[in-house]
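[DERIVE STRUCTURE TOKENS]
===
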Amino acid sequence: MAQAADMAAVEPMVVKAEPTLDRQWTLTLGAYLKVQPEFMGSDDYEFAASPIFSITRADRLSRFQSYMDRPSIALFDSGVFEAGITGAMVWKRDSSDSNKLLGLSSIDYAYEAGGYLQWYPMDWLRLRGEVVYGFGGYEGVVANFAADAIYFSDYFGGMTLSAGPRLTLASSGFVDTYFGITPEESALATALGNSLSPYEAGGGVYSVGFGGQIVKRFTPNITGKVFAEYEYLTGDAADSPLVVQNGDRNQFQAGVGLSYTFFLGFE
């Protein structure tokens, strides 16, 4: 009886259930190292870096993500249809970055915020659209649309290959900021030996293109990517003296990316 009383006095042990792995929230951080045009419309290239950022559940880590996707947070995800918020920062453009910009005003950093929709009409096809409003360096609206065909290969321990077309629309606030030339800028540029005529750019279809990538998940935490993108400027952006005289409407990007995923331990 005494032994039974001692046992009854022992407090029961509480076992806390661990979060289900595939329902845990995760944070993915990383960066791309790439080659890109020195400025929008340039025919000269430079090395640059850009961030990788994503918050999602663990069971969505294997879902496809493109280099062209802005950093985003999913607010709704049914597995087939996804919607959320997205944003990015557009790097500043200094007139001292290139002799081809002499006489033009510098453009400050721009910040973009908006939303995205994503749909898998088939397991191997992803459609995605992003619409953002930019402020700071430019004020206007930019919309990106992409379709990616996705294929998983067993080679080299498994990797994902994808490719598809791109389309970008932009308002005059964006296009005129980066491709327009005021009379004052034209006069100063000409005086400095950079003969650029005054030009006012309007909005519309900014570019069409095509891109692809290869993704390899080395461990549950570490993922590597190789990508290449081609963009063909159209409309008022392509007709700007900055492109016709000093640049190229054919724009290329290519690079590698590496990211690390943190499992946050809660659902």
Notes: The longest helix spans residues 183-191. Residues 7-18 have pLDDT under 50 and may be disordered. DSSP finds five helices and eleven strands in the chain.
